[in-house]
Amino acid sequence: MRLDLSEIGRAMVIEGIPASPGIVIGKAFIMDTQRPHVSHETISPGNVEREVEDFMAAVADTRGLLERLRAKLKDELGENHARMFDAHLMMLEDSMILDGTVKRIREKRCRASLALTETMGQIIKVMGRTDDEYLRDRIYDIKDIERRLLMQLLGRKDGCLDDLDAEVIIVAHDLPATVTASMRRERVKGFVTEVGGRTSHASIMARSLEIPAVVGTHSVTDAVDQGETVIVDGIMGVFVHGFDDAVLEYYRDRQKEYEEFEEQLLLVKDYPAVTRDGHKFELGANIELPEEADSAKRHGAEGIGLFRTEYLFIARDDIPSEDEQYEAYRGVVETMAPGSVIIRTLDVGGDKFVAGGEHEREANPYLGWRGIRYSLGQPNLFIRQLKAILRASAHGKARIMFPMVSSLNEIRDAKQVLEAARQQLIIEGKQFADPIDIGIMVETPAAVVLAEAFATEVDFFSIGSNDLIQYTLAVDRGNDRVAYLYDQYHPAVLRLIRDTVRAARKHKIWVGICGEMAGDPLAVLLLIGMGLDELSTSPLMLPEVKSIIRSTSYRSARKTLAKALEMTTGSEVRRHLEQIFKKRYPEISATEMIS
User: What are the respective helix, strand and coil percentages of the chain, to the nearest 5?
Assistant: First the structure.
């Protein structure tokens, strides 16, 4: 939804993607995360070896910096966040980079900076031509290492944020992993970037640090001056600058309202999610990394409704071992006990790939080898993950969920692999819960149509609204040309969710929803009426969802849903919900406070 401040005052608004909620006003700190310019001058023969020594010294200094950053991040956010540096450290020992650069210095008698740039450019060129998506994704890491080495060689500040002596808002083209790791929470109030999405590393870090952030703004760095007072609105997903006093006062009021709003919501975090007429719901949190379980607890989650395990795999150069996965899953299960933890098996494919697994470029990756299809095609990887989850189940209530299911055969094949994992653990003498709940993500129209048959094979359903909407409406929500068609209020989507819940109820199995829809205040009014067992969303949204549940009745929500299901367009449904919301919750404006 476009933000128009023209009736309030003068301001320049740059739209982006809301990465982490909140509003912050502060001084812009424009970071140079781009590769610096290098000299093409030729050096004298007598200076060649000195240039080689300078290059190797830069490598050593960069290695030391990365090792310090890794240790710092491990202390603050845990091993899984810190592991992102492992690939960078390995590159600093790569003979193609080291020997290639030294050879160029000696043969071309050029500066180390130019030799490094040419060496990296050749590597990137080769990797860019490969069909291996994982190797192509490593180009980003290579560019980050190249930039850091060049900064050392040229004696320039490396974008490290440790030395900040005032509170700032970071403005950058991008925030590489090695830069976000150096953020000091008490200094960095928020950030805005030109690239990235909600699942980019910078976005995940912002939510982990609980600071407002907007990403994907395209042109922000050229729009502002160093030290200029700016506003990051992580609720609406906009960056505001060049504003007058009227707009500044408006945002100060909104910031205060939002902070008070959050404080009030947190007061209900320990209360049950029960409607006024006594209908109980479970509230779960969606997490990407084990360390986020603490945030889930802090915001009132009763359990984890979706643990996206692929983030344990994709930010590294190898596949995590069974023991490593076990420790990660165990930590979350123990943290959330006695609540349940739904651990989704690896959901790669589409735009996410892992090292060591087979994958190739596909014309339509979201319709290709992803989710359960990928895991069944990689039995060794799959059985390793299932064994780790089973072992974690010995420490609390872990539940296994298979993603992207569209046929009974996939469920049955996955259960066979799970049985093989059980048998291996029995032979190895390792403990696990038996039985363990098995469920599926309902995120394809096929899964809804066959929901009654699927319900006889599993213990629970979790509706993945993000993909269900995408596949039902044939809309790639990442495509700007058609993103306006992505509509969670579309009557077809609502009816599919209703039919899934009906099938679960008929066969007496548990059913939840874990997509972004579960964190949307307007949609929550409908989801209450659906009669789901659980709503699972971002930890930061849980207090508000709970407040809405406790402020309405199941009976009135059923009436709201019935009327919405009679409508023929998503815009009609949204207007209907907005009218109800304003009447029932005048203290909360869904269209102003929440994106």
Answer: 50, 15, 35
Peptide bond into 338 cis (omega under 30): yes
Identify the active-site residue in 201, 241, 395, 576.
201
Classify strands 438-442 and 397-402 as parallel, antiparallel or unpaired. Answer: parallel
Would you state the pLDDT for residue 356?
47
Catalytic residue among 299, 359, 395, 514: 514
- Residue 109 near residue 43, CB atoms below 8 Å: yes
Is 201 noted as a catalytic residue in this protein? yes
Q: Which two tokens stand for residue 40?
A: 């093409």
Q: Is 13:240 a contact under the CB 8 Å cutoff?
A: yes
Gyration radius of the chain's alpha carbons = 25
The verdict on pTM exceeding 0.90 is no
pLDDT, tens digit, 9 for 90 and up, residues 146-159: 888 988 888 776 55
* Residue 283, token pair as written in the block: 């509230």
How far apart are the C-alpha atoms of 509 and 253, rounded to whole Å? Answer: 46
CB 299 within 8 A of CB 543: yes
Residue 81: active-site member: no
Classify the phi-psi angles of 278: left when phi > 0, otherwise alpha if psi is within -120 to 50, otherwise beta.
left
CA distance 205 to 201: 6
Q: pLDDT by residue (tens digit) across 119-130? A: 998 888 877 665
